[in-house]
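sry for the spam today, last one i promise. struct tokens for design, 199 residues
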């Protein structure tokens, strides 16, 4: 269990630690509890929020739950009730869902290790999958060959090797006839959507 004494400290802890349940004082200094609640509930990794506050009117409760809090407990409270509510929220916490990366008709699930294009399953090698994942993560930005070597291979990879070129070439063939990986000499590779005109 971690304790934060103001909103700034809480935000810093949330950036580096994974929590199942956050007990949030609505009147935190630094970053107000309302703002922090919206920051927490807007994250991809879902954290259950119990808002704890002296503002216990029905209107306060409604506004707190509207901000995304999963439960609301007014002060003063009975400590065993707080513990029971935390346990109940932990049980209700939704299972983590895999985040599918999608662009240019490609769908890639990093957790299930599956990839497809326009509904067609792609049979990719480990390196081809990793290159495609890196490009989708970076999209629409470019990744240089050096970036891909660093992310997909390791620090011992020869920077003068043509392994990136070869892997991208094989990946292009497996993705099909309509090109979705563009190459700009001296810059690198990126995913492009053939349905979107350049400009």
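last one done:
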């Amino acid at each position: 269990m971690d304790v934060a004494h103001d909103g700034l400290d809480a935000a810093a802890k949330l950036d580096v630690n994974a929590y199942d349940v956050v007990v949030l004082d609505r009147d935190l200094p630094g970053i107000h509890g309302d703002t922090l609640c919206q920051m927490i509930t807007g994250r991809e990794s879902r954290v259950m929020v119990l808002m704890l506050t002296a503002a216990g009117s029905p209107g306060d409760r409604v506004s707190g739950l509207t901000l995304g809090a999963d439960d609301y407990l007014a002060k003063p409270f009975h400590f065993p009730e707080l513990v029971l509510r935390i346990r109940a929220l932990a049980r209700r916490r939704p299972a983590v869902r895999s985040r599918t990366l999608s662009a240019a008709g490609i769908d890639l699930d990093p957790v299930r290790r599956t990839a497809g294009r326009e509904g067609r399953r792609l049979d990719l090698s480990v390196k081809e999958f990793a290159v495609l994942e890196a490009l989708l993560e970076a999209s629409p930005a470019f990744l240089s060959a050096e970036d891909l070597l660093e992310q997909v291979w390791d620090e011992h990879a020869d920077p003068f090797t043509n392994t990136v070129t070869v892997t991208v070439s094989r990946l292009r063939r497996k993705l099909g006839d309509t090109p979705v990986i563009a190459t700009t000499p001296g810059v690198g590779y990126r995913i492009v959507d053939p349905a979107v005109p350049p400009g």
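The mean pLDDT is 85. ok im logging off now
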